[in-house]
Amino acid sequence: MCGSELTPKKQGLTPSDLRLQVQAKRVLQSPEAPPSPCISICRMSDHTTYCEGCWRSLDEIGGWAQRNAEEKREVWQCIASRLAFYAAA
Known about the structure:
By secondary structure, the protein is mostly helical. It has helices at 15-29, 58-62, 69-88.
């Protein structure tokens, strides 16, 4: 055992998750092309199956550059929904 089995996952959103939540709201209200949500914390969570930094799936991360502005906005909407779900859990 390495110890992680003994430490339960902290409930609620982290400070970086809360900043991402605010940024998602801003991005979704802006008419400009959405920026990448990447914050260079590139680790897939075993608990959520999303990146711990940007809350995207592997498909969303890998296909980001090929998406148009509307598709990127849809990914941001998914991020906002995921954060809201896990905040309420």
